[in-house]
Amino acid sequence: MGRYVGRQLLTIIPTILLSVVLNFALLHAAPGDPARIYAGFDTATNDQIAAVRHELGLDKPLPLQFALYVNQILHGNLGESFAYHRPVLPVIFERLPATLLLTITSAIIAVILGALLAAVAARRTFSKVDFGLSFASYTFYAMPSFWLGLILILVFASKLHWFPTSGMHDVRAGYTGYRNVLDVGKHLILPVLTLVLVQTPIYYRITRASVAEQQREDYITTFRATGMSEQRIFRRYALRNALLPTVTVFGLSLGYVITGSALVEIVFGWPGIGRLTLDAVFQRDYPLLLGIYLILAVTVSLAILLTDLVYAVLDPRIRLR
Amino acid sequence: MMHRAAILTSLQRPDPQAVATFEAVVRAGRFSRRDLIRKGILLGLSTPAIAGILASCGGSSPTSTPGSGGTTAPAAASTSPATAAVAPSSAAATTTGTSGAAASTGAKGGSGTLVVSNSGDLKTFNPDFQIDDNGYIVHSNLYNTMVVLDDDYNIIPELAKQWKVAADGLSITFTLVSGAKWHDGQPVTAADCKYTIEQILAQKGAPGKDNLSAIKSVDTPDDTTVVFNLSAPSAPLLGFLGWYGTFILPKHIYDGSDWTKNPANQKPIGSGPFKFVSYKTGDNINLEANKDYWGEGPYLDKVIFRIIPDANTATQAFLNGEVDFVNGPTPPLSQVPALQQTPGVKVDIKTYPSVYYLGCNMKKEPTSKIEVRKAISQAIDRQQVVAKALSGFGSVATTFYTDVIAWAADKQPDAQVPQYDKAAAAAALDAAGYPAKGGSRFKLTFPYFTASPQYGDMAQVVKENLKAIDVDVDLVALEIGAWQDRTQKGDYDVSLLDGFQGPDPANLKNRVGTGGGINFWFYSNPDVDKALDDGAKATDQKTRQDKYYAVQRQLAKDLPIIPLAGVKIPRPYHDNVTGLYFTEAKGKTGLNRFTLTKVGKK
């Protein structure tokens, strides 16, 4: 196991290097000129644009820019954000907690809820419960998250006044200590609910299909023939096997916890990294974007590795070497 | 992004002690101001000599009348930036403006917290080295400029309480307010102004650089006197000085450092009515009252800018009381009527000095032909554009330049845009050799950018209008950076743009001058270029007006751009907010300043 992890970690390195090259090439190939954007849209003269291009280092030949960038990364420096004029890493890391709080909370709730509902539905295939859950899952799966978020705001914030409209804090009150925690919790509910509603159907569909499939397997029939209770067969064997695909999807989704909730962050004014990423795209903030993509590449790689490890625990047939 | 100067703010309401006097002053000020503006403009237009007088005084004291030269000096307080041109005139030589805000009375703080929504992150707290649309309103409350534009783009005093233009127009002498302090307690002196202006002029990329380029050198005979020596008289200079990228920075903090990297760019030290407390990107910017502010106010304890990117969410947060004033993002126009009917909510509808227009590719057929451009102009029902794309919040454009800067807007018949006449449009295209074969004369590629929802709606209306004369339109929605690349390459037939046309018509150069930064249309006419150059150099308003009228007449002949609608921007605020820079404090504080704003009980 230890050797397996070590070897996998080594293969992550070329993956990440490749992603750096690709990201750099793609960003510079995409339309849009940062110098024009930072010089100002409707007032900049050509001289100003040229001066800004020079300041941003974009007047150098592309291969040289790339070499300088790689050299920087190797020294542990991701450069300075064009937009914020600050080193990239702190800009990213100060937004990380808000995003992780939102995405991990909702991912965990969604996978548990999805799997539980699937277990319920799969044991009563084609019952009213099954039918109802399937219908709901299709409905929510088809909803765009930003639209659903806005509807939740209209209902629960504007109409019922149960929750705040947007943001992460009540800035007027400026709470500290445990009241601040409660305040953040209150602001967290609607965005988490939005993400849970759109994500749960994925886990539900996968788990339900796979539970239903497991229950038709020969070994289940064998267990039944031995007189083992349905309860025990389901909990101990069918469900456990059926959860493998769910774990895969969950593991892969963890790779996207950092930027995957951008639309929900925009709708709820949540100060996370998804929004930071989109802002950086619109502003052609190359250093910041490359930094975010680099971190993204690392988290996706690690999430895949983690998924493999959990697999081995769940499925005794898999032995990692 | 296109509405840089449209940023807004707050209010004021009676406060026991100082307010009685204050209100009297405001009232008097508004009275004389309104009257005198009109009078001043009329005078300015009719007699060049008076234009010169206006040019030279910028004071806003409603009560004191310097009156040298036997003129009505206070009128200048409310003249438009261009009216306040630097002009050589014998009267000008002796006329000075004075500041009405000299008396700094009134309690500091105590009137609660104002929460303002802002659509995006501020980039840096150094307001002068880079364009920063989302930062403008924040900078405006942390820093001061020497003079400042008010919500009607009139020049009013700020750090400079009065100024005097030399008879030859080649120097301006400013007198600074006394007692102004930086947030760290150091005094604000003439040296700070000199440092800032010189720094702006020394930086190639600084947004204020070109606007201030008439300044040759800056002298500081004493701590409260700043003298600009000009290379030539410059009409738009004072307006630009009060606009953008010209906030006075503390020399003792910035001198000798790279101003793009100074730590104060993260922890600003200004001289404005509010002090920096904290900034969480993507979340909020927190300012508190500067209790040592040199002028009247601030009355608020705190101003908090909440960053809310989505227009629908910002509108709901406003309705739910989490936001007191929506600076940005602009509420969806279709929701504005409902906002106007909401109890406790007020919506100021600002006529913004900007016009939506179609730009035509001058290098590519069929739009390179004037007959085609004219037909397009006649094919568009501008009433429908305003009604459908702008929900009525706009005005039908009949001419090229914004009404807001009235003296420069040519309204005469030969500067009019060809208006809606479908039959004439179709006939003109038939005659120009574009018959409607098989229901289509030709196809136009129409890329537009998606910065605001109005663009998409307007493009759709234009498409339908053109379809009615058998011209097909391919709409292409693009992100703004991609749009710029594409239009610059000339890979389009028509496109859509608007943008700030102030503070002075000199800015038209960038829009329609040969090689101008936002002349995406490849329009080049030597007569227009010459008139633009002459207009910027001329010093009296009548001459300037002639030059800019000539530009507009030529535009009406050439139609490289086809004006569609004047821009209006809704600014919603709760009615317990008073003394905003566009309500009670209009003319007393500059654009975006919350200096006189108060929040009352809801």
Explain what this protein looks like in three dimensions.
The complex is a heterodimer of chains A (321) and B (602). Chain A is mainly α and 321 residues long. Chain A has 14 helices and no strands. In chain A, helix 6 (96-123) packs antiparallel against helix 11. Helix content of chain B is 29%, strand content 19%. The radius of gyration of chain B is 24 Å and the shape is globular. Chain B has helices spanning 16-46, 48-56, 90-94, 136-142, 190-202, 237-241, 251-254, 311-319, 336-341, 370-379, 382-389, 422-431, 453-467, 480-488, 508-512, 526-537, 541-558, and strands spanning 113-118, 147-149, 155-157, 160-165, 171-176, 215-222, 225-230, 274-280, 284-289, 302-307, 325-326, 345-360, 394-396, 442-449, 471-478, 494-497, 561-574, 577-578, 598-599. Residues 1-104 of chain B have low confidence and may be disordered. The longest helix of chain B has 31 residues, at 16-46. Chains A and B meet through helix 2, helix 3, helix 8 and helix 13 of A and strand 10, helix 8 and helix 14 of B.
